[in-house]
């Protein structure tokens, strides 16, 4: 009897999911989330809007639509609503992404708990989440990538919970309905979530639990994002499926061979990268995680899809929380003295990427790499330079002048901030902005802002009016303002010819 009992006990510890979850490390996990929230809120008003925030704000405020070339309508709608409710408030505008990032750490800890992680594992998982440079930096912005991180993490958590309960003989199919609702939001954020869903279903079909496909709630959950996506799909079809062209552009911009190393860099030097690799190994090999094998194969399938089809390294960032949680369950009983020092060392890079430096310091140190300086500064100087050039034109000519920016970065800034400075709306032939329309037929003069893709061959006369001077290294600095007159073709014929992707 003793032998049988010990054998059964060993089997239980190597291949079962406990019915009773480990206690939730409420105080430590919530303290971690609160620290993330406090840090991000303290930096919300540093510098200025980032390029994508300006683009989303312009799209939602001035060009609302059921779809866009490069994103879906949820974040533009949120940006427009927040700007309407709290005009010009960067704090209010960035409160939601800060909360979203803090919630991501909590959900990551809950995933670790569902995978059998004790309180120490839950804290390790939650603490690893903000150590990802990509995750923490996106928590500073209201962008589609920010919202996508929490959406993927929440979908995976609910599915893990459903699988754990099902393995224990408990049907909790309302969790599948929750997955359907979150997926509906995710589809309206970015189409990449469809890759995650497809990878999950394929992995489950191969490794189990195949009983999922017999649950009626699964098909109801699947219908929710399909039905809610109809307007977006209709917009895509009516405009020639521009999302496919965007996919081609992304593929051309990225080196497939760098997908894995850059993804690991985005996960975080030391802790994040190590946890991603260890998390995949545990999901595929750990005996106690056998019921979750499908998650390991899902992670591999998502990576392989973007490796073959082409994609940015951040497209897989929604898997980081899952992999951190799986890794933490393997670290929970280790007492290595280097674990927490590794966490502290890993915090240096994500903190350094945030807007923590005074602008005067950045101006004196142009050699210092700073992503936020590059994409978050220079907008007032850009707007003033273009407004000054516009005001110098005769009043009659102003009425016939269109402002065209080389790319959506500049166009978004001029559209959102320029209108307050008395400028007309901005146009751009670049990516999603091209779909916002061409200048009117009456526009025979163009103020063009940019250094590449000049319009000289399409106009009879051109004259450089000056350059944008910001005093910092950023995307606005050094752009030339050029006056073009005498278009050689009407705008309906010219606009498709100057389109850039």
Structure explained in plain terms:
The protein is mainly alpha-helical and 501 residues long. It folds into 2 domains: 2-353, no CATH class; 378-497, no CATH class. Helix content is 59%, strand content 6%. The protein has 25 helices and 5 strands. The protein has helices spanning 2-14, 26-42, 51-62, 74-85, 90-114, 119-128, 133-138, 144-167, 174-187, 193-207, 216-228, 230-238, 242-253, 259-267, 271-285, 293-309, 320-331, 339-346, 348-353, 359-364, 371-376, 379-391, 395-398, 408-418, 491-497; strands at residues 401-405, 426-427, 445-449, 459-467, 480-487. The chain has a 5-stranded mixed sheet, with helices on one face. Helix 8 runs antiparallel to helix 9 (174-187) and helix 9 runs parallel beside helix 11 (216-228). The longest helix is centred in the first third of the chain and has 25 residues, at 90-114. The protein starts with a helix and ends with a helix.
H/E element sequence:
HHHHHHHHHHHHHHHHHHHHHHHEHEEEEH
How is the biggest beta sheet arranged? Answer: 5 strands, mixed
- Rg over CA atoms: 25 Å
Low-confidence stretches: 1-15
The percent of residues in helical segments reads: 55-70%
What general form does the structure show? Answer: globular
* Average pLDDT score: 93
Beta strand count: 5
Order of adjacent strands in the largest pleated sheet = 2-1-3-5-4
Helix-strand makeup class: mainly alpha
Share in β-strands: 5-15%
Number of domains: 2
Number of helices: 25
First-last Cα distance: 72 Å
């Amino acid at each position: 009897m003793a032998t049988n009992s010990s054998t059964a006990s060993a089997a239980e510890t190597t291949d079962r999911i406990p019915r009773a979850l480990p206690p939730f490390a409420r105080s430590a996990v919530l303290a971690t989330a609160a620290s993330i929230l406090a840090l991000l809120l303290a930096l919300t008003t540093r510098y200025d809007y980032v390029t994508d925030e300006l683009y989303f704000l312009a799209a939602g405020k001035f060009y609302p639509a059921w779809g866009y070339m490069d994103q879906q309508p949820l974040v533009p709608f949120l940006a427009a609503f927040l700007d309407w409710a709290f005009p010009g408030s960067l704090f209010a505008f960035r409160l939601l992404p800060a909360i979203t990032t803090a919630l991501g750490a909590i959900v990551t800890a809950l995933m670790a708990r569902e995978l059998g992680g004790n309180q120490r594992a839950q804290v390790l998982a939650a603490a690893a989440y903000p150590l990802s440079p990509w995750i923490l930096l996106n928590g500073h912005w209201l962008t589609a990538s920010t919202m996508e991180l929490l959406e993927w993490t929440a979908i995976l958590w609910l599915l893990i919970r459903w699988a754990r309960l099902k393995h224990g003989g408990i049907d909790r199919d309302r969790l599948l309905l929750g997955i359907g609702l979150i997926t509906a939001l995710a589809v309206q954020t970015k189409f990449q979530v469809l890759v995650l869903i497809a990878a999950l279903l394929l992995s489950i079909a191969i490794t189990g639990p195949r009983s999922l496909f017999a649950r009626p709630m699964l098909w109801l959950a699947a219908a929710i994002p399909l039905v809610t996506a109809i307007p977006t799909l209709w917009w895509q079809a009516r405009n020639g499926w521009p999302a496919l062209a965007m996919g081609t552009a992304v593929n051309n911009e990225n080196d497939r061979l760098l997908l894995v190393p850059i993804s690991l860099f985005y996960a975080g030097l030391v802790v994040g990268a190590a946890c991603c690799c260890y998390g995949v190994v545990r999901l595929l090999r750990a005996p106690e995680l056998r019921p979750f094998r499908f998650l390991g194969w899902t992670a591999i399938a998502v990576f392989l899809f973007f490796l073959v089809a082409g994609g940015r390294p951040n497209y897989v960032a929604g898997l980081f929380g899952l992999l951190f949680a799986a890794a933490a369950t393997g670290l929970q009983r280790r007492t290595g003295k280097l674990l927490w020092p590794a966490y502290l060392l890993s915090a240096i890079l994500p903190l350094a990427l945030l807007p923590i430096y005074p602008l005067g310091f950045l101006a004196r140190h142009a050699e210092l790499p700073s992503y936020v300086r590059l994409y978050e500064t220079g907008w007032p100087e850009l707007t003033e330079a273009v407004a000054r050039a516009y005001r110098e034109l005769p009043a009659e000519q102003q009425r016939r002048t269109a402002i065209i920016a080389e790319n959506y970065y500049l166009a978004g800034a001029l559209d959102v901030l320029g209108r307050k400075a008395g400028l007309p709306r901005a146009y751009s032939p670049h990516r999603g902005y091209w779909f916002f329309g061409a200048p009117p037929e009456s526009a025979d003069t163009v103020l063009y802002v940019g250094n590449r893709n000049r319009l000289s061959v399409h106009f009879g006369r051109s004259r450089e009016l000056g350059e944008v001077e910001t005093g910092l290294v950023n995307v606005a600095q050094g752009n030339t303002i050029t006056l073009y007159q005498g278009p050689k073709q009407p705008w309906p014929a010219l606009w498709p010819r100057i389109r850039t992707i």
